[in-house]
Specification:
Blueprint (H helix, E strand, L loop, with lengths): L15 H5 L1 E2 L2 E2 H30 L6 H4 L3 H12 L4 H16 L3 H12 L1 H18 L6 H24 L8 H31 L1 H21 L12 H6 L6 H24 L5 H8 L1 E2 L1 E4 L2 E4 L8 H22 L6 H24 L7 E2 H29 L5 H9 L1 H13 L7 H21 L1 H7 L3
Parallel strand pairs: 3-6
Antiparallel strand pairs: 1-2, 4-5
Helix pairs in contact: 2-5, 2-9, 2-10, 5-8, 5-18, 6-7, 6-8, 6-17, 7-8, 7-10, 8-17, 9-10, 9-14, 9-16, 12-15, 12-16, 12-18, 12-19, 14-16, 15-16, 15-19, 16-17
Length: 467
Amino acid sequence: MSQSPPLTATGDAVPQAAAAATWFGHPKGLTFLFATEMWERFSYYGMRALLTLYMVKYLFLKNPDDNVLGYTTLKSALEWMFGPLGVQPMASQVYGLYTGLVFLTPILGGLVADRLLGRSRTVIVGAILMAIGHFMMAFENLFLPALLMLILGNGAFKPNISTQVGGLYQQGDHRRDRAYSIFYVGINLGAFFSPLVCGTLGEDVGWHYGFGTAGIGMVIGLFIYLYGQRHQPPEARITRKAVVHEKVPFTRQEWKAVIALLILWIPNVLFWATYEQQGNTIALWADDFTDRSISLFSWTAEIPTTWFQAFNPFMIFSFTPFVVALWAWQAKRGTEPSTVTKMAMGCFGVAIGNLLMVLAAQHAGVDGKASWLWLFGYFAFVTTGELYLSPIGLSLVSKVAPGRILSMMMGIWLATSFAGNFMSGWLGSFWSSMDKGTFFLMIAAIAGVAGVIIWLFNKPLTPILGE
């Protein structure tokens, strides 16, 4: 008597060959998803490391009304909402709008995958769109259309490759949380190298060389994904009958899970609004208010501004083994924090990092610049906060969201970064007009409020989330 094949966390069948084929105790497919995401993040963060500096120091100083397609219309719309915008506030608004929409379109990408194309084909379409967008950045007049291509491509790519990680494991497989931590290391490995490569090329050789290199990274990621397709579980076929079947009402438990995720959505927005100052106002602080000189014996050098964008991803893959080991140690003693508590602690980490920057502003020298070590401390706290919130959220969605809307729910969860990044751009527009210590205090307060809100929901949400 034949047995039905085991099901993954996403409801797809796991072929026996794929289930048996492992590397380092995990399915081979994880390695290819890891490498694909690493190169995609290389392209994204390489471009992001240059984005604000490119606008403030070059593009928006060159009569953008005539040289950048769509600039006048966009600026008029933003000024209608926020009032007159100078070069720096306009750049911060564009940065926030771009990084925000990057995390809104995953809702659409999840729907397209769930209802029309399937996850694999949607990932491929997204990768192609992003590669095209990066190469369009080489043409100044296509700056805004290029951002639109990147936004749409990321929306198709991001929720579906994240969902495919969970799809490698059968329901109840204890390796899934660790798989997301490993996958998260891939994200940050790419994010670490990209400012060093793309940032250096953009600052020292030419902006367009940096953007072009980001495009090459995306193409490499696409080829790796295509090569590793045979190691992914086959997806359930999307048919009209399947779509009709999905109209069956949710169970009480499924509704509880959806509501729990939506409750956590709002404070997550505040977290990302404060966290995403890294590529916005923190980049400007590093460029204008940081003593970037470093000396070792008789050797002296200056750290390039974009290299500070590598601090966070470097710390991610450096700190991850220690954080995971700490949780394992706490679990053995029955003291591991709940999912909700971990997320609250993540917000508090960002608050402490910004309080450190308040001290940095107060201890700036007579030239108005503070040591780069303050930024090192800032990134250490913010990174720890990220580890307690971001990968935990991805794993949480893959575990509790109803399987028939899993990609869409992953997209909705990623959309916390849309609202957060849009808010980060609005907050960043105050940078030029506020005292820097006061600005960082404001950011710390917002992150602290987010942590308190999440913590207050800990007791009612923990049983709903199955803990």
